[in-house]
Prior knowledge:
The complex is a heterodimer.
Chain A: E1 16-18, E2 25-27, H1 32-35, E3 42-43, E4 47-51, H2 58-72, E5 76-81, H3 86-91, E6 94-96, H4 99-118, E7 145-150, H5 153-156, E8 161-164, E9 169-171, H6 186-209, H7 211-235, H8 241-255, H9 266-269, H10 277-290, E10 306-311, H11 323-339, E11 343-349, H12 351-357, H13 361-367, E12 371-377, E13 394-401, E14 417-421, E15 426-430, H14 438-447, H15 456-459
Parallel strand pairs in A: 4-11, 4-12, 5-8, 5-10, 10-11
Antiparallel strand pairs in A: 1-2, 2-3, 6-7, 8-9, 12-13, 13-14, 14-15
Helix pairs in contact in A: 6-7, 7-8, 10-11
Chain B: H1 3-9, E1 19-24, H2 31-43, E2 47-53, H3 58-68, H4 72-75, E3 80-83, H5 85-92, H6 97-100, H7 105-120, E4 126-132, H8 134-139, H9 144-160, E5 164-170, H10 177-184, E6 189-194, E7 206-213, H11 214-222, H12 225-230, E8 238-247, E9 252-255
Parallel strand pairs in B: 1-5, 1-6, 2-3, 2-4, 4-5
Antiparallel strand pairs in B: 6-7, 7-8, 8-9
Helix pairs in contact in B: 2-3
Amino acid sequence: MSSFRKRHVQKPVPGTRTSPQTGQIITSSGNPSFDVIFGGGLPVGSICLIEEDKYVTFSKVLAKYFIAEGVVSGQSVLLGSLDDDPQELMRKLPKPLNDDEVEIEKSTEQENGEFSQNGLRIAWRYNDLPPVNSEQIPSKIGHHFNLMEHMDKNLLDFVDTLLWNGNSYVNSDEVDDDYDCGLGDEDNVFSAIESNTESKDDTDQNTTSSSSGSNISCKEVDLEQERINAAAALLSGNSNETLRIQNATKLQVDAVQPPIILGQKQNNNCEKIFNNSKYQRFLKLVQSFAKEEKFSSSTLVYRSLCRICITSLGSPLWYDEEFPKNILKFLTVLRGIVRNSVSVCFITMPMHLISKYDESLVPKIRNLVDYAIELESFSGSEHETNNAFKEYNGLIHLHKITAVNTLTAYMPETSDLAFKLRRKKFVIEKLHLPPEMQEDIKENMQTFSCSGGSSASATSMDF
Amino acid sequence: MAASVLFACGLNEQKLPKFVHISEESNCDGSFLFSCILGQRLRISNAGTVLVCLQHNYQHYFHAGMRLGYNVNIFLDKTLNVVDPLTDMAEKGMASKWLQDERQVTTLLLDGIRDYISASAAQRISTTILVDNLAILLNLGATKEEIIQLCHELAELPKQYKNLAVITKLSNCDLYAPIDNCVAKLGTLRIRATQLKSGVSRDVDGKLLIERELAANSVKEAGEELEALQNGGYELEQMRKEVLYKVNDRNIKIINPGELGVKV
């Protein structure tokens, strides 16, 4: 018998690539400058925790980027939130830019840079040096987005989305965009979907036992590819593709099996694991969604990436008597689910509130995630008026970077990072202090007064 | 690859101390220690290993092991047995046995370990139980007392089986100080992974504080308790050592404090 064995090469998951630094499969967070922190993108199977800023302005922007990237890459998205309306969030996703727009954007920025360089007052000879851009951008993996405009609604039709707002869920595959189950009771929600599970089980059996089943899975591969192509075509603004896209979607609805929403019947018999039923309901949903065959790491035929986004987890709406116990158990189980499927999870949490509830919860939560990144916004703080930070909207603190499926994690070049929200994009840069100008000092000297006037320099004085 | 860190911790020998406890402070990752120990145990011919994956799933140990130059898959279900509650929870969801009853979590774990040991310990020259990590059991609902009870039961296993060693890990040890101290007292070797007080450094990831009771172990083995008592019970000798570590892509570098060329 020959020892020759055919090598099965797994197709790469759409929207992912292998990291040159760690050799892991990574996917973009949606924001190129944010990806730099992770060494090009988030590793598949990891959980990224964003510790929200006080007014939840910037963390929500990052969550939108994360979801928008999933939509554009043709990946599946699960969005859960108690504080925000997930459907509203989906409607307000930023518009993806095509290559031409990105080029225009870059050239505009360069022009602006040159303009500001002409006004350089420190040393004129630096004018000959090439411009230094402190905004770091990795090699291309994700997309660029324009925060000023919203994403085309048609793009959302090409992706599997599952939205959960605590009481009901909306599944893009089964219903129209504005459909809402409107079921408040836990049992009702799951009994409503149980029929789908049975049909899914039946089709699963077909796939494994009969040849017609295998045809379905092949068809699924082609259709998924077609769907990505269609989304890409729409992105590039080609209107002729629209008809083809519609056909592809229609076919997909016919051929692709509906996703499993609920596990086996025995789940109904299991005891209450969380005192707060919200945790249990949401975990069931996540587990059923991530359990789909296409998210299985062992599947050779076709794999897709599942993006799980939870905004404002641990906000007062999640509170109950046993909040610390529930949140830790929830994150432990979620970690298990994310690690064992081709998925990536993005969570935003109001840590400043959680630390007030229980100080020791913060390190315990950080221990259960792979990346813990805090957004410290200047709005409302004394830094807002500080001249040193006038260019930025806030600072980024890297609390935890874990090595997932490797020995050591990628460490960014610097941990001194700041962010600013421009009109069209969210930018993360290396923090650098502005040069201290001679004239500025003179101006400050002139406005300085011991009487404690209204000048910025005087406000920081204690007396 | 990992020889230097194992040598520094005193875990490079074929015969390990009976109970070893690894503590991990908040914001400090000591997972590399488990990968190093696992590789060392698997390389010993006919040595059994039971790995309890609570912090990471099995895939993590596989990938980390590949970086350190060993393939865990070769040993799986032969000399290596895995208890993987995370995967079970992911597959079965709320129906997973690990989520059904909080009071049974530690019992289930102990039963799982015992099943593997009773089946194979007699055929192996030595067996090592690796539990990574105990803090996850607390998250799953186990109480402080149950964790300590579990560790007591694990510490009893080396008395029942010859050449058996238990290695446990607890993260956030600064928050679970009572459990950490109680568990560490069961063994003769304690390793504490801490962050640098001076902050983050490019050359050093953290510090390992190694505490070892030298004489106590040897006295028990030689059966010379009486002699020790006659000497006023002062046979116990503690060895305390501090080393700095840097986890690289494929190896771990150990640096002595004060070593030249290291910027801390």
